[in-house]
Design brief:
The structure is a single chain. The protein is 47% helix and 15% strand. By secondary structure, it is an alpha/beta fold. The protein folds into 2 domains: 297 residues, HUPs (Rossmann fold); 156 residues, Isoleucyl-tRNA Synthetase, Domain 1 (Orthogonal Bundle), CATH 1.10.730. The strands form 5 sheets. Strands 3-2-1-14-15-9 form a 6-stranded parallel β-sheet, sandwiched between helices. Strands 5-4-8-10 form a 4-stranded antiparallel β-sheet, covered by helices on one side. The longest helix is centred in the C-terminal third of the chain and has 31 residues. It is elongated. The protein starts with 13 loop residues before the first strand and ends in a 38-residue tail after the last helix. The structure holds ligand ME8. The site of ligand ME8 has 22 residues, from strand 1, helix 1, helix 7 and strand 14. Ligand ME8 binds next to strand 1, helix 1, helix 7 and strand 14.
Length: 537
């Protein structure tokens, strides 16, 4: 079997994708959650000095988009253009998302290649014509198995509902083209067994393995009752099923069938980040499509849990849809990027509340981290005129801090860079921040400052150097999560001038000691985390 994303060789990029989101509506917290996670992961790898490719984009075909456009009296293309330009791209820019590309499924670079891919499968005998009748959920753009459905209540009493959208399914009967998905069950099971990390978390993996073990049905890959999609190349009365079209973005965006060099240097993805709603598409259908073409399979499919608000899954169709901008205008962009990854273990469901966000902001960001940075800068200013002193009198207490930084670096690098345990990685850094705060409280530099003997001054210098050098490490470690804050801290430590750009500091080397040179100009920069205003009404 061809190499998988986890076995890619050195010259190739570390390739991470988000789902391509439906443009039926503007993005909400749930979409931003996955996209911020991908941004932190890719910034982390960039800061390791690796070549990285971070892809996001939009899914623009299918009935769901078509119906939304109709309801708004515009063409689906005009609707998609408007949403992409006015809602999706501006949000990613606002949240400081450093994606390398943004693919739209209505772009010709995508649609041409989708047709070629499907034609190829047809020519290989992987696709046949057949009939299908079954319950369809337009919200999911998916035929459901009768056993998946739930009984409606209230206004939907007597009807069968989609378990995700809680809306009635529609009975669809169509003659369309089918991909021989059922033939791939045993190969998929073999692949999952050989690659135990392919699907994460463990609960997601178990669900998929159980599902495939029960036997797969062939997949209907065309639709003939509407035309908003990529035409089936050999039969233009049909359009290609929106999920087949959408999944192929991961190949077409990196040069499939168009730029072999780019494709070979990027594909397959090391990590497909998704939510658990679209797990089967990514861990069953997508690998089977690649197997059918003899293409290499992705490294990992990692599913995040649901963001919940008031006990409900955040979604476009329920009223819990708080806009990311509502939160960034109150807490700031960096705190927003930090909060969800810090508060929720990646892979688990988690609830959002203003109260929790406010409490963590104040205690962890403002009090622990922000105060440490401002206290250290103020003391270097007061006692040494803003010139970072040398640490000539280090002892056991300083050694413990140095060890603490080295440990934070190793833990964060493993947890964020490898395990996608963002919470664990962030906590490792904040534990270190706490350690440094404790060190300052114990050493009491403000008392040592009163000792004007050379020994006393050497101790004072050592304490402040130790604290500043610790902050140098913290700035590097938190740069992927909170890039604007890290930059402010970096400048306040005089590091930009003495060490160069923050982005060039290797995260794996951040635990080295004695990097920040004595004499660096430390200034009291802007407050990293200002006191919060009253919660908006
Ligand atoms: O499914 N909590 O697009 P979509 C956490 N177009 N994550 C959430 C979330 C929540 N409450 N709500 C949404 C599609 N997400 C397809 C994808 S990919 C080839 C095609 C995130 O707009 C999560 O990543 O419905 C989820 O999988 C995705 O948004 C669904 O976005």
């Amino acid at each position: 079997m061809a190499a998988t994303g986890s076995e890619k060789q050195g010259a190739t990029a570390y390739y991470v994708s988000t789902p391509i989101y439906y443009v039926n509506d503007a993005p909400h917290l749930g979409h931003a959650y996955t996209t911020v996670a991908g941004d932190v992961l890719t910034r982390w790898h960039r800061q390791r000095g690796e070549k990285v490719w971070y892809l996001t984009g939009t899914d623009e075909h299918g009935q769901k988009i078509m119906r939304t456009a109709e309801a708004n009296n515009v063409t689906p293309q005009a609707w998609a253009d408007k949403l992409v330009e006015e809602a999706w791209k501006p949000l990613w820019e606002h949240l400081n998302i450093a994606n390398d590309d943004f693919i739209r499924t209505t772009e010709k670079r995508h649609t041409d290649r989708v047709q070629e891919f499907v034609q190829d499968l047809y020519d290989k005998g992987e696709i046949y014509k057949g009939g299908y009748e079954g319950p369809y959920c337009v919200g999911c753009e998916e035929y459901k198995l009768p056993g998946d459905l739930i009984d409606g209540e209230g206004e939907f009493a007597g009807q069968k509902l989609c378990p995700i959208h809680k809306k009635p399914v529609e009975l669809l009967k169509e003659e369309n083209y089918f991909f021989k998905l059922s033939a791939y069950g045993p190969k998929l099971l073999e692949f999952y067994a050989a690659n135990p990390d392919f699907i994460q978390p463990e609960s997601a993996r178990n669900e998929v393995v159980n599902f495939v073990e029960q036997g797969l049905q062939d997949l209907s890959i065309s639709r003939s009752t509407f035309d908003w999609g990529v035409p089936v190349p050999w039969d233009d009365k049909h359009v290609i099923y929106v999920w087949v079209d959408a999944l192929l973005n991961y190949a077409t965006a990196v040069g499939y069938g168009a730029n072999q060099e780019k494709f070979d240097g990027t594909f397959p993805a090391n990590v497909h980040l998704i939510g658990k709603d679209i797990l089967r598409f990514h861990s069953v259908i997508w690998p089977a499509m690649l197997m059918a073409q003899g293409l290499p399979l992705p490294g990992k499919v990692v599913a995040n849990g649901w963001l919940m608000v008031g006990g409900e899954k955040m979604s476009k169709s329920n009223l819990t849809g708080i806009k990311p901008q509502d939160l960034t205008s109150h807490f700031g962009v960096d705190a927003y990027r930090w909060y969800f990854l810090r508060a929720i273990s990646y892979g688990s469901d988690g609830s959002f509340s203003w109260e929790d966000f406010s409490a963590r902001y104040t205690s962890e960001l403002a009090n622990d981290y922000g105060n440490l940075a401002s206290r250290v800068a103020a003391m270097v200013g007061k006692y040494f005129g803003g010139a970072l002193p040398q640490d000539t009198a280090a002892g056991n207490a300083e050694q413990a801090v140095r060890d603490g930084l080295a440990k934070a670096v190793a833990t964060a690098d493993r947890k964020i860079g490898e395990e996608l345990d963002f919470q664990g990685g962030i906590l490792a850094v904040f534990d270190f921040v706490k350690q440094v705060n404790g060190y300052i409280t114990e050493q009491e530099p403000w008392k040592v400052a009163k000792d004007t003997t050379p020994e006393g001054q050497a101790r004072l210098a050592t304490i402040l150097y130790t604290a500043a050098e610790s902050l140098r490490g913290v700035a590097v470690l938190l740069n992927a999560v909170m890039p604007e804050t890290s930059q402010k801290l970096w400048e306040s430590l005089g590091a930009e001038e003495s060490l160069g750009a923050l982005a060039d500091q290797r995260v794996q080397d951040a635990g080295a000691w004695g990097v920040l040179p004595a004499g660096a100009t430390v200034t009291k920069g802007a407050v990293l985390f200002p006191r919060l205003e009253e919660k908006p009404a």
